[in-house]
């Protein structure tokens, strides 16, 4: 049984979410304040975290940073904070998805299922993907630049893997997003892909301003350059 960590202070919403998630077969640990979240997080091991941004005693962004210091589990923000700057902030600090309220329960559940599936999908007949100085070790879920282990979030790892699996091919934004999420919302798409690409470039490129690996193909999408 997958264990989900839910940080949300709205009592009426948490009742509905906990019921729906448990009906899907998930075990849910609920925290309604940042202080309670700190205590519960240290006591348990979780497969995915769902965070609100605005809390009575703190901010979900801070808790996401706390998670990323010790864990690569998928993190989703579920919040009424729908400003572009909030969405970019959430993705930039390591979240894998960002949904705004109000939302459709079916879409929410689909995203949760997708994040969990993709976080598990490390097994493969191929054990490594290599392109130039970048190597992904699929069985370990790790990526390296030369001998250096890259500090990637689960979303960045999936994006890097997608590029290496399609090296030399132009991938449209729709193709990329279709592999990151099962269900798409235009507002989230338009903000999140640019953030993901920029964040990944800062970690794998020698000069992120002049990328050698992830190249923008104007009007078409992105391509992973294979070494000559």
Tell me what the structure shows.
It is a single chain. The protein is of the alpha/beta class and 228 residues long. It contains eight helices and 14 strands. The protein has helices spanning 11-23, 34-43, 60-68, 84-92, 105-120, 154-165, 173-180, 186-204, and strands at 3-7, 27-31, 48-51, 54-55, 58-59, 75-79, 97-100, 128-131, 134-137, 142-145, 148-149, 170-171, 214-217, 221-224. The chain is globular, with a radius of gyration of 18 Å. The termini are far apart.
Along the chain, the helix and strand elements come as EHEHEEEHEHEHEEEEHEHHEE
Total number of distinct structural domains: 2
* Highest-level CATH class of the largest domain: Alpha Beta
Q: Helical stretch count?
A: 8
Low-confidence stretches: 183-188
Number of DSSP strand runs:
14
**Topology-level CATH name of the largest domain:** Rossmann fold
How does CATH name the architecture of the largest domain? Answer: 3-Layer(aba) Sandwich
Round the Cα radius of gyration to an integer and report it.
18 Å
Features:
five-stranded parallel beta sheet, Rossmann fold, alpha/beta, Arc Repressor Mutant, subunit A, globular
Secondary structure: elements and pairs:
Elements: E1 3-7, H1 11-23, E2 27-31, H2 34-43, E3 48-51, E4 54-55, E5 58-59, H3 60-68, E6 75-79, H4 84-92, E7 97-100, H5 105-120, E8 128-131, E9 134-137, E10 142-145, E11 148-149, H6 154-165, E12 170-171, H7 173-180, H8 186-204, E13 214-217, E14 221-224
Parallel strand pairs: 1-2, 1-3, 3-6, 6-7
Antiparallel strand pairs: 4-5, 8-9, 9-10, 10-11, 12-14, 13-14
């Amino acid at each position: 049984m997958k264990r989900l960590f839910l940080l949300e202070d709205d009592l009426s919403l948490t009742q509905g979410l906990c019921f729906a998630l448990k009906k899907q077969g998930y075990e849910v640990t609920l925290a309604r304040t940042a202080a309670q979240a700190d205590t519960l997080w240290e006591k348990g091991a979780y497969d995915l975290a769902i965070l609100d941004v605005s809390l009575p005693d703190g901010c979900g962004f801070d808790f996401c940073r706390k998670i990323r210091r010790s864990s690569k589990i998928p993190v989703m923000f579920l919040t009424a904070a729908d400003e572009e700057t909030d969405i970019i902030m959430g993705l930039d600090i390591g979240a894998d998805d960002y949904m705004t309220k109000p939302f459709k329960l079916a879409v929410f559940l689909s995203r949760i299922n997708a994040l969990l599936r993709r976080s598990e999908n490390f097994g493969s007949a191929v054990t490594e993907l290599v392109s130039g100085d970048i190597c992904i070790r699929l069985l370990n879920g790790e990526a390296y630049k030369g001998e250096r282990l890259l500090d990637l979030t689960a979303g960045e790892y999936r994006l890097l893997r997608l590029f290496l699996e399609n090296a030399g091919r132009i991938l449209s934004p729709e193709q990329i997003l279709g592999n990151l999420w099962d269900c798409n919302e235009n507002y989230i798409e338009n903000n999140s892909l640019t953030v993901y690409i920029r964040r990944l470039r800062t970690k794998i490129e020698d000069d992120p301003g002049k990328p050698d690996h992830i190249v923008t193909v104007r009007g078409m999408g992105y391509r992973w350059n294979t070494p000559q």
